[in-house]
Amino acid sequence: MGVWSRARGRADRATIRRIRREGIGPVEAARQVGDERQTARTAVYLLYLRGAVEVSEEGVLTAVPDAPEPADPVLSALFEGIRRRDAEGARLYEFLDDDDFAPYRNRLESHVPDVRRYAERTRAIALSAAFVLSVGINLHGVVSQTPFPPLGNDPGWWILLWFPIWAVLSLCAAAWPSEFSRRWRSFNRYCEQRVADALGEGPPYPVRAAVDKGAYRPTPPSPRRPGGSPSAERGAPGDGGSSWADDAGAYSCGGD
After folding, report:
1. Distance from C-alpha of 17 to C-alpha of 6, rounded to nearest angstrom
2. pLDDT above 70 covers what percent of the chain?
3. Which keywords annotate this record (predicted)?
4. Tens of pLDDT along 95-135?
5. Would residue 166 be called left, alpha or beta, if left means φ above 0 and alpha means ψ between -120 and 50 degrees?
6. Are 25 and 110 in contact (CB under 8 A)?
7. Which of 144, 162, 198, 221 is most exposed, with the fewest beta carbons within 10 Å of its own?
8. In the chain, where are the structural domains located?
9. Quick check: pTM over 0.90?
């Protein structure tokens, strides 16, 4: 299984060697080590540091008039999408699914390294193989009545031998990477350093805080119940509903 996994990673290793030779853009590097939102945040920071966009206190991004188009192709696609919005601007969460920024997403995906980010679901296979192998060895010894010389030539000892064999093989299988383990740690560190070099100290804190205000799409308010109104909930005089005195008692500082 280890040989199979190594063979599966041959194309990834070739891609990583090529990227180390040729380099990688900061936005693509951010996507290699983070999710789409973190990548968009990195791209916004880079545009701000290059004087291409402005950020309002509410997190609205607008293109700076007459700002030069970024040379980076991914940043260029994002900048063009923001510039098309004119004074309306855009927020970070729109970069993830809005049609206006589909060119940015498509260009980003075409430049992201084509390597697997996580290990495959092989730990369960390794555990199953350990179980089958350990049971098979001992079952074969019992069925074939193979003597067990170290403990008196009794084939029944093969049953007890199953436990240490299973324990050793299970420990080996447990050391197998889980499906949530990141692959290519050295390459990931390389990408993280590429992002850090591009950002430097990054934008000032007020700018980062403003960008974060537009990181998530606002949640719409919960719909009110049909026919519900403040007066109906509080009760009208004489209808048996609660009165202002009841509310005052509920919010007083007395009581138990």
Report:
1. 16
2. 67
3. Membrane, Transmembrane, Transmembrane helix
4. 999 999 999 999 999 999 888 776 666 666 767 777 777 77
5. alpha
6. no
7. 221
8. 12-116+183-213, 123-174
9. no
Both tokens assigned to 2: 């280890």
Q: Which amino acid is at 11?
A: A
Q: What is the 3-state secondary structure (H, E, C) of the chain?
A: CHHHHHHHCHHHHHHHHHHHHHCCCHHHHHHHHCCHHHHHHHHHHHHHHCCCEEECCCCCEEECCCCCCCCCHHHHHHHHHHHHCHHHCECCCHHHHCHHHHHHHHHHHHHCCCCCCECCCCHHHHHHHHHHHHHHHHHHHHHCCCCCHHHCCCCCHHHHHHHHHHHHHHHHHHCCCCCCCECCHHHHHHHHHHHHHHHCCCCCHHHHHHHHHCCCCCCCCCCCCCCCCHHHHHCCCCCCCCCHHHHHHHCCCCCC
